[in-house]
Amino acid sequence: MSVIGSHTDRLTPEPVTASSSIGRFLLTFAILLSLAEILLMGIGWAQNELAWALADRDFSFGFAGFVAAMANGTFTLAALVLLFAFFEWHQLRFRNFRERYQEGLLYGSTAIVIAIILQTGAFSFLQTLSIQPLLRADHLGPALVLFPVLYMVVIGFFEYWLHRALHGIPVLWRFHAIHHQIEDLNAARSYTHWAQDALYLAVITIPLIFLIENPHSHIAVLTTFYLVSNYYMHSDSPAFSFPAPLRHILADNVYHHHHHSRAIEHWGRNYCSFFSFYDRLFGTQYMPSDEAFHPTGIDGYRPLTGWRDYLVRPFTRHG
Fold first, then answer.
1. Is residue 16 part of a domain?
2. Residue 6 maps to a domain
3. Which of 97, 99, 182, 218 could form a disulfide with 5 if both were Cys (CB 3.0 to 4.6 A apart)?
4. So what's the pLDDT on residue 221?
């Protein structure tokens, strides 16, 4: 399969003007998150029904859970990409749908399938160790009120430094370059290499399991935003851009597009994927002076040529 689309035939969305109101921004985000929550609840229900249906047909609970988790991951990808596509595609006057989204759906679903296989294997192994987490969310008492925010602050800190390591350590950059070679970012073209996802599992997800048990029921709203955030950060729809003052606290799609920008002054900047203040704290912030989505990609880096190339590129001599 050849690389689909290029930045030369793209209709660039109109930038957000300074007159964009906070009210309009809040309404857009409320609609987006509400629709995302409805979709995720429906997919969660379907996952449970599928697992029980397989169990009723005498498949093992382990196999039924694995198949249901695989269905959940791929359906979540498709549902969230289509949700964002409505806004993004509208900005482009409903043109070039296949060119914008086919490549991302292919590579993104591949990464999800591999991630679920690795995660299932890792969690099965961890259960055999019978190691108890240091904390339980239910035992935090009054601190439980602040727990969702603290949880995201901790994740944001570790993601910031892992992201910097992906750029600063040559062997890790080989994996991360797959993400940065993407031209014309959008919600679907937010995929990363599957080996990078495995690194996140080992460095962030598993340590959090040992740190605190069963936090998800206490961070339901943030869980939805966290799932949506990766697609959001790479969306090129001006309708989702934050009012400029909010970027001093939270990163938005304009802020993150500057991280992917080809412009030299943007290199090594804006690593944050949620709280932008970590960039300011550690000296890597470039606060956007405009609302433009600058050209993205890596000069001199050969774009992916297909599915096999996506799987093995970082492990080849020219990766």
1. no
2. no
3. 99
4. 62
Q: Work out how many domains the chain is built from and give that number.
A: 1
Expressed as residue numbers, the domain containing 159 is 21-315
Assess if residue 11 is contained within a domain. Answer: no
The pLDDT, as a whole number, for residue 11 is 45
What backbone phi and psi angles, to 5 degrees, belong to 28?
A: -60, -45
Cα–Cα distance measured from residue 249 to residue 229, given in angstroms and rounded to the nearest whole number: 15
| Residue-level pLDDT at 2 | 35
Mean pLDDT by 10 residues, the chain (319 residues): 40 46 77 88 92 90 89 90 81 70 90 91 84 76 75 89 96 95 90 93 85 68 77 87 88 94 92 93 93 89 89 85
Domain annotation covers residue 300: yes
